């Protein structure tokens, strides 16, 4: 298989999924609104004291991002599964892993990236400093794709099941804990004036690992679910 | 010897073998528990710093070790079932999961009870306890996924994939939790700093073996029921004495 | 607070009841559940066998 055709396939899948997502803009927006709402709940729950909120900010934003990603993941394969497109994709001679990677990329662009862009605005509500916000965004940029990718494995395993989104979250959330730890750790480090490169390098390493392995694992999971 | 192994990898022969082995494992587990607890409570001395409370470790540590190893063994069986499509391997994985989860729970519970007299709090976010909690979540995820899928083949294979992904993640999770813990200067559960008294080591080891024997016995019992269920339409099952009654 | 005091004055009872007691309870429950599962599975298999035999 020529390299250009693999890349062409990727672009094709991404464009298709983006077009489909744009037709159902409401789905995309609800994830974003959920994100904002969850973040807003925390000050309501713990009180408006700024010092405490500033300390919690990174954690709250990251957890909210995690939960929002989990919610949107149900949509990754379900539409194609229901109308039979997924079956066609699996029968196609092209690499299923590439197709999956394309779907993951489109999903991230539609569900992950908006969260990353929204996060600084919410971070200001928690009185985060500019440096902290910068590190937060950087961490989310590296981490949100990982969430999409690990989540895709869960979405593929739970395809068509009754338990649905909650089951998916139960399966995937423990696996995302390292991303959470390093993402928030980086923000804490910058707030204490410490070095952030190790945290961000770990996130980068996890991202690379995810890029290499998750498409293939997800493809296997799809085959298991579709037999 | 190689031929014998494959003979026992068939549910039919394994069912009978397991049935014969269970009483031996169960009985030895019971005896060793009594021995272990006797050494732990009557032979081992009171600890200089922790007093009597340290004696919780004789159940806490074996439970932790078992929960971790059982997860890996479960994932191993699941992988075998996925790769070689051997039915019994998947059944073993399914049989191990609840026992592993219960040991993880016992580890967390006894850890909390140990923590209360030690640091005054029922829970400590130390690296090991937190990793144990995540391990419990991984077990529960495996059980939940398997239970949510009606088709047994799909259930086995999906859960197997999850278990494998989980095992790969466990070192990453453990490492990141350890990092997180030192970052926040959390406490580490250390045993009194000084070397353990011989009797304490003996008690711990005896209880560890006792827990292993118990686990094997229970898993074998459970897998026999699973075999009965899965193979219920076969002739050899209908010919079993306990079915014919 | 009284729990703390009771705990310090009766460490062994605390350990026995709280830790080993609960652990033993869990083991007993686990064994009971496994035996129960075996019982109902055998019942199911017998039902199936008798139903098959009637045909």
How would you characterize this protein structure?
The complex is a heterotrimer of chains A (227), B (245) and C (55). Chain A is mainly alpha-helical. Helix content of chain A is 87%, strand content 0%. Chain A has helices spanning 3-23, 25-46, 50-73, 75-82, 85-91, 96-125, 130-157, 164-191, 197-226. Chain B is mostly helical. The longest helix of chain B is centred in the N-terminal third of the chain and has 33 residues, at 11-43. Chain C has a domain at 25-55. Chain C has two helices and no strands. The longest helix of chain C is centred in the middle third of the chain and has 44 residues, at 11-54. At the B-C interface, α3, α4 and α7 of B face α1 and α2 of C.
Summarize the structure.
The complex is a heterotrimer of chains A (227), B (245) and C (55). Chain A has 227 residues and is mainly α.
Features:
heterotrimer, A: 227 residues, mainly alpha, 9 helices, B: 245 residues, flat
Task: List the SSEs and their pairings.
The complex is a heterotrimer of chains A (227), B (245) and C (55).
Chain A: H1 3-23, H2 25-46, H3 50-73, H4 75-82, H5 85-91, H6 96-125, H7 130-157, H8 164-191, H9 197-226
Helix pairs in contact in A: 1-6, 2-3, 2-6, 3-6, 3-7, 3-8, 6-7, 6-9, 7-8, 7-9, 8-9
Chain B: H1 2-8, H2 11-43, H3 57-84, H4 87-119, H5 127-148, H6 152-183, H7 198-230, H8 235-238, H9 241-244
Chain C: H1 2-9, H2 11-54
Shape descriptor of chain A? globular
Query: What share of residues of chain B is helical?
Result: over 70%
Q: Please give the radius of gyration of chain B in angstroms.
A: 20 Å
What class, by secondary structure content of chain A?
mainly alpha
Overall geometric form of chain B? flat
Strand content of chain B: under 5%
Low-confidence stretches of chain A: none
Strand content of chain A: under 5%
Low-pLDDT segments of chain B = none
Largest protein interface? B-C, 37 and 28 residues
Helix content of chain A: over 70%
| Terminal-residue CA separation of chain A | 26 Å
